[in-house]
Write a structure and sequence with these properties.
Layout lengths: L1 E7 L4 H16 L4 E6 L2 H15 L8 E6 L7 E4 L1 H12 L7 H13 L1 H4 L12 E6 L6 H9 L12 E6 L6 H12 L11 E3 L3 H4 L5 E5 L10 H22 L5 E5 L4 H11 L8 E4 L2 H4 L2 H8 L11 E4 L3 E4 L5 E3 L4 H4 L9 E2 L8 E3 L1 H4 L19 H6 L1 H4 L3 H16 L4 E8 L11 E9 L2 E4 L8 H17 L4 H5 L6 H4 L1
Parallel strand pairs: 1-2, 5-6, 5-8, 6-7, 8-9, 9-10
Antiparallel strand pairs: 1-3, 3-4, 10-16, 11-12, 13-15, 14-16, 16-17, 17-18
């Protein structure tokens, strides 16, 4: 990264022109840094001759432009006068340097009036680097919606003014044209004030992981026709092993990894965490809350309670083999006033600190007893799905769906904001809370603790019979693929409360 130096006389129109263009670039490019060297007209030539002699340059320009590595006392690299400087900016930044002559004259007069302020000592100007997000598998139509939300997400923006940069990737090179099309759609979007500088297309995960803050793995490995269950899982296992190898080599420290839109989500998370042992355990999370979110219209119709008063039902289980939407423990506001629901924004995706005031929140269990359409014949819970094939048939309908993106964006917002007030459902590492097996990734109610999504032990667990049914398939998969060994072999990688 370089700092550009622009030296000249304030009354010179070219000097003012170069200074104005550099200032515009500083506002649009978070990593652009420049410094102004101001000299009086009578001293400029002597200063320039001496400086160029020291640098072994033969040049006589006003302004004079060079660059040097940021925060370094190393050698200077000559760029030249204003024409060479603008040619350099066009080549590297594709910037329009044109300016009306009358405006250039006004700028020069203004600089001359402000000369005594410009002669004060200045430090190189730089901005906080932009937060960098990489989305691999980014070829679905709703990718545009996901990217648009991320670019506008304030908690994701770096402190000090750094903005968000999103990289798009797909392992299939034939999809490159689709990525370019998505990029163009986002570049032309009205909300995107930064244009194409906000979006890049990369050719590999390794490139996307450079300085990455959030790595999103999007999309499912589709089950092929006549492919049996074991073959399908083997292909997912192999894909996660390859991704883990890349993460071990190239994932930056504390880069967050989010998986979504996968049929074998918890299986893939468990394999990834098992093999990617260089990635911090609680920096790997999967999105599951949308499974509960899509049930809200049904619950609302059956109970007569408006959707804004309902919080997303907790989702339990090994998503992809067995999952359970716990309708009994949907939380709803019984007050109904605006005061009751303040601070509970986006109730469909999360519940905001429900445990602090139980008088304002109640479980839906009493209502469910009167709503037979929401429960099974035993009146206790919704049947647990363990049918892989039935899930596979619905791939096209739920892949990268808008409810899932809505939940994911809410999770990312709280993740980077590090706010521990809300509870959502997500697939995280199981530490044994709720009686779930230790060492696997399972969907459960979670909340933020010191920047990490962890099980919310205050939330009521589902019925024991549900857990038993739900985990019978999980145990078979764990044994067959020898999962969970990492956490027995490397307990120091786990949080202190787990290793104890």
């Amino acid at each position: 990264m370089f700092t550009y130096f622009i030296a000249g006389v304030p009354k010179c129109q070219d000097f003012g022109h170069a200074k104005l263009i550099a200032e515009k670039l500083r506002h649009t490019l978070p990593n652009f840094s420049y410094k102004i060297v101001v000299k009086a007209e009578e001293e400029y030539r002597d200063w320039m001759n001496k400086f160029c002699y020291e640098q072994k340059w033969k040049i006589d320009k006003n302004p004079l432009v060079w660059k040097r590595v940021l925060n370094s006392n190393g050698s200077c690299q000559l760029i030249g006068g204003i024409n060479e400087f603008f040619d350099h900016l066009i080549e590297y930044y594709n910037v329009d340097t044109r300016l009306d002559k009358r405006l250039k004259k006004k700028i020069a007069l203004d600089n001359e009036e402000r000369m005594r302020f410009m002669l004060t000592k200045q430090e190189p100007v730089s901005r906080t680097p932009a937060r960098r997000v990489c989305i691999t598998g980014a070829v679905y139509p709703s990718t545009c919606y996901l990217v648009s939300e991320l670019l506008q997400l304030k908690p994701l923006q770096a402190k000090g003014g750094g903005r968000v940069t999103v990289c798009l990737h797909h392992k299939d090179s034939d999809k490159y044209g689709d990525l370019i099309r998505i990029k163009r759609e986002i570049c032309d979007a009205e909300f995107n004030v930064r244009g194409c500088s906000a979006i890049t297309v990369v050719n590999s995960e390794e490139e996307g992981l450079m300085n990455c803050d959030l790595f999103i793995v999007l999309g499912s490995i589709r089950r092929e026709e006549n492919e049996d269950e074991n073959q399908w899982m083997d292909r997912n296992y192999t894909a996660m092993k390859k991704l883990a190898l890349i993460l071990n080599r190239h994932c930056p420290d504390r880069c967050k990894v989010l998986l979504m839109a996968m049929d074998l989500l918890c299986f893939n998370l468990s394999v990834l965490a098992e093999k990617a042992d260089k990635v911090y355990l609680y920096d790997i999370v999967g999105v599951t809350g949308h499974h509960g979110m899509v049930t809200l219209p049904t619950i609302s119709r059956a109970t007569g309670i408006p959707i804004p008063d309902l919080h997303c039902p907790p989702v339990w289980g090994f998503d992809g083999a067995a999952k359970y939407v716990d309708i009994k423990h949907v939380i709803y506001h019984c007050g109904g006033s605006e005061a009751d629901i303040r601070g509970c924004k986006d109730a469909a995706t999360a519940v905001n600190d429900y445990s602090t005031d139980r008088n304002e929140h109640k479980y839906l269990q009493s209502v469910l007893q009167q709503s037979e359409g929401l429960v099974s014949g035993d009146g206790k819970h919704v049947a647990v799905s363990t049918n892989f094939e039935s899930n596979a048939k619905n791939i096209a309908s739920h892949l990268c769906s808008l409810p899932e993106i809505r939940v994911a964006v809410r999770m990312i917002s709280e993740w980077f904001k590090n706010d521990g007030r809300i509870t959502v459902s997500a697939a995280v590492f199981s530490d044994g809370t709720f009686g779930l097996p230790f060492g696997m990734f399972l969907s459960q109610p979670v909340r933020m603790e010191n920047g990490e999504w962890k099980p919310n032990y205050n939330f009521p667990p589902p019925d024991e019979t549900v857990i038993t049914d739900m985990l019978s398939k999980t145990s078979e998969i764990t044994f067959e693929y020898n999962l969970g060994n990492r956490f027995n072999m490397n307990p120091r990688e786990m949080a202190a409360e787990i290793s104890e």
